[in-house]
Amino acid sequence: MSIARDWRLRAVAVALLGVITFAASRAAAAPPMRLTVRSVESAASKAATDGTLDAYFAELGAALARELDGGATKASIRFAAGEHGRAALLQWRLLEKIGPEGRKDPALAETLAWLLADQDALAMLFGSGEPAGGRWREAVGVLGRCARDGTHREGLPLRVSVATALVFAEPVRAMADGSEIDPVARVDSFLEWDTRGELFPSFRELSPWELRFVVGSWSTDADLAWARANIKPDLRRRDKVGEAAHMLAYNLTNKNGVSVQEGKRFYDDKPMTLAVMLEYGGVCGAISRFGSSMSQAFGVPAMPVGQPGHCAFLWQKEPRAWTIGNDISGWSESAQHDGVFLPWGREAWFVRLMQDAQADRAGLVAAEALLGAAELSGEASWGTFASEACRSAPQHYGAWSMRLSAARGAKTGKGARDAGKDLPKELAAAFARHPVAYARLANMLPTGPAPATDAEEVRRARALAATIAGFARAGADAGLSSWALRTVLEESARRLSGAQDAGAALAFVRGEPAPAGAPKSDALGKVVGLAFEATDALDVAPQGSAHDAWKGALDRAVRGTAGLAEERDAGLRAIERRVAGLAGQSRLDDARWLADRLVEAVKAAKSAGRAVSELEPRATALRQGLG
Fold first, then answer.
1. CB 86 within 8 A of CB 369
2. How far apart are CA 490 and CA 507, in angstroms?
3. CA dist 193 to 185, 186, 208, Å?
4. 568, 584, 583: which is closest to 619 by C-alpha?
5. Which of these, 235, 160, 218, lies nearest to 192 by C-alpha position?
6. What is the Cα–Cα distance from 351 to 390, expressed in whole angstroms?
7. Which are the contacts of 35, defined by CB distance < 8 A and separation ≥ 6?
8. So where are the chain's domains?
9. 8 Å CB contact between 175 and 219
10. Residue 177 gets which letter from DSSP?
């Protein structure tokens, strides 16, 4: 579970008041716990060794609660953001995450005695994203097995061990035969391959977060060795290795006519090793898994991703820069594949967002400590601590989610002040390279004490569309910019129509046919008009990313128009006006492109059995009028 998704559940941490009260009663008879780096390291290590981590956790929580004083004052913020506060808060967060069973587990005692007393290792763990499935206790167990001695508790061995612990918190299974891959062997193999110079030199520069997508390979160690021995020589380069995916022939059937959809039978029941895959070929799934494994074999981060009806893969073609291999749908429609875990969310664009956040790992760790302070202090202080977390790590999606949720719920005080005019500007500055993340979070921006009127909602959507257009003009990915506008319009469709009546409006902004039996919505016409107006905001350049984003958004509006049962005429008139306007601006290519999209949308709707008799002749005439 990602930080963005489980912070509300973590608010249950406030329920630790019972435990904290117990610890406070002890504190009345004993000197207060000192919260310095050295004292908490020493005390935590001793408690882990003595088997008294539960009591230490309670005492630490009570000491932190006193220091934070139940509110986000300047002093408490300075403490949480400082060296001593960060050390204590990260300890508390880890102990809270592994739960009472983890704190009492003797098998974890030695690992925790080391980890809680090693600020570098603890920071590395928290700065590398959540473990697979949010399984912190299991991650600590795997880390203890991998970082089993001093040699593995520093430098590259520690980074590889932390990455492996976070991935192997859930079992990783070999695609060849479904067997579990041993995490300890995986760490040892990559370190040995690096020592022998078999990996690209860039492997040594990867962060633990990036290393997650190397050590998490679904190929066995033997298969990865085979990949290095059998790759085409001209692909043995960092910027070419992902192209090895296309060494695999695209085959729908094997030589005996067995369909690739038959799974193991396609491979004549042989284990699906890389060598067997190369021999038999396959379709998108095999090609993308092969490309991922060939990249990982040389220490290059990679992973399969799902697209609608397709499997593609991500690989780090250049340092800190990801690209999509075997792509048909782009970043906007790529998402986490089964068997892969992405911190913060399932969509593939979270990979690029986290990559940017990793540029300042110290800031990322500081943000994690501040979120711990928010959890401990309670709902009244979430907004202020989360605001500080956003300043420490501007691309921390989870911190922004908490901050905006707090701002929406605040009526007075610090949280309400955070909901002022500077909040939208800060959000836009932080996510200018990540338009869908911006749109999702912008939909959470507070609208004021009263629900927004329809006119205010229209202004909101137009303003966000203009901001997204600015992102696209500055070079943000066109597909993501277009998808960001869709995200904004989906929210507008809900707000203008009402949650119960938004079916047709949502279908329209998604470019889909209106659902059968959707109730008549008085707001549908407003949504249709708003979608075309907001799309116009993206038409800010004759070519480039912004122009491509405009075309993607306009294509959805055209398909949505063809799929409408009502308000179709309003959509058609909007299209006709825009075709005429483009032609009048000597943009005949764009005018013809738009008219062609309408003709194609009408054909698709007709093939799907929808009534388009009044639409078809107008679409045809519109296109013919352009020559």
1. yes
2. 9
3. 12, 11, 17
4. 568
5. 160
6. 18
7. 63, 64, 67, 79, 84, 85, 88
8. 173-342, 461-627
9. yes
10. T
- Classified as helix, coil or strand, 598 is helix
Query: What pLDDT is attached to residue 123?
Result: 97
Query: Domain spanning 173-342 has what CATH number?
Result: 3.10.620
Instruction: Give the H/E segment covering residue 305.
Output: strand 302-307
At 7 the pLDDT is: 44
Reading the block at residue 572, the tokens are 């058609």
Q: Are 594 and 567 spatial neighbours (Cβ–Cβ below 8 Å)?
A: no
Fill in the amino acid letter for 624: Q
Beta bridge partners of 571: none
Closest CA to 327 of 342, 343, 315, 318: 315
pTM (two decimals)? 0.91
- Residue 505's nearest CA partner among 482, 537, 533, 531 is 531
> Which pLDDT score is estimated for 421?
66
Residue 543 Cα to chain centre, angstroms:
29
Amino acid at 171: P
Residue 103, CA atoms < 13 Å, CB-side half-sphere: 18
Q: Helix, strand or coil for residue 116?
A: coil
Give the integer Cα–Cα distance in Å for 205 and 364.
18
Q: What is the DSSP string of 240-281?
A: TGGGGGGGS-B-SB-TT--BGGGGGGGGTT----HHHHHHH-
Backbone angles phi, psi at 337, to 5 degrees: -85, 150
Please, are residues 180 and 216 in contact by the beta-carbon 8 Å criterion? no
Segments of the chain with pLDDT less than 50: 1-5, 7-29, 411-417
pLDDT for the residue numbered 24:
45
Give the model's pLDDT for residue 30.
58
- For 82-154, where are the alpha helices, taking DSSP H only? 83-104, 109-115, 119-126, 136-146
- Which residues lie across from 313 on neighbouring strands? 304, 325
The order of strands in the sheet holding 310-318 is 321-325, 310-318, 302-307, 335-336
| β-bridge pairing 310-318 and 321-325 | antiparallel
CA dist., res. 475 & res. 463, Å (int): 19
Would you state the structure tokens that stand for residue 409, as one six-digit string?
Answer: 């719920």
Angle formed by the axes of helices 74-81 and 361-377, nearest 10°: 130
Residue 535, both tokens: 């799309």
What is the 3-state composition of the chain as percent helix, strand, coil, each rounded to the nearest 5? 65, 5, 30
**With contact defined as beta carbons under 8 Å apart, do 86 and 77 qualify?**
no
Whole-number Å distance between alpha carbons of 474 and 329: 22
